User: What shape does this take?
Amino acid sequence: MKISVYNIKGEATGRSVELPEEVFGIEPHEHSVWLDVKRYLAAQRQGTHKSKERSEISGSTRKLHKQKGTGGSRKGDINNPLYRGGGRVFGPRPRNYDIQVNAKVRRLARRSALSAKAKTGSIVVVEDFTFETPKTKEFQNILNALKVADKKPLTVLGNYDKTLYLSCRNIEKASIAPATDLSTYQIIQAGAVVITESAIEKIKENCA
Assistant: This one.
């Protein structure tokens, strides 16, 4: 699959690059995408939730009144979950939400997500670029020139670039990631995927 290469001014350079068919031209496998997104979102959960149960509440364990003869219901101590301030019944406990998904399935999911974007024409290839210092306005101008600023763009770099990361960080709905850290969730969340030339080979290595 050939696609034109643009410069940071949004102008066609007259050159084109070949997107690997095994990454950008397969039939999307929806179930693998679902599994990988589920794994990604589960991994974002801290799992530090905790509520106090009956044995952990600070309060007297004295029986409130005798078992029989009062005309009222039977009562234990004040920490009873039925009382205000009592313990929680089967409350949340700290746990790990991680889900195991095979590496082959994760790679298939990334290929499926990229192929889906390629089919809808949502992929833009741009020449490699960088800034001497972080410049949010310059990064915004590049997105505007490429006509993707209003499409929730994801910029994929060949290698991590702190300057570009800081430049993109404050742009609403825009995100940036090196090809080696690209996730299925990031791809499907993006309305347009901007790929630098050096990132194409890295994506192939990461997904194939």
User: Anything to note?
Assistant: The first helix runs from residue 21 to 24. The chain is about 35% helix and 15% strand.
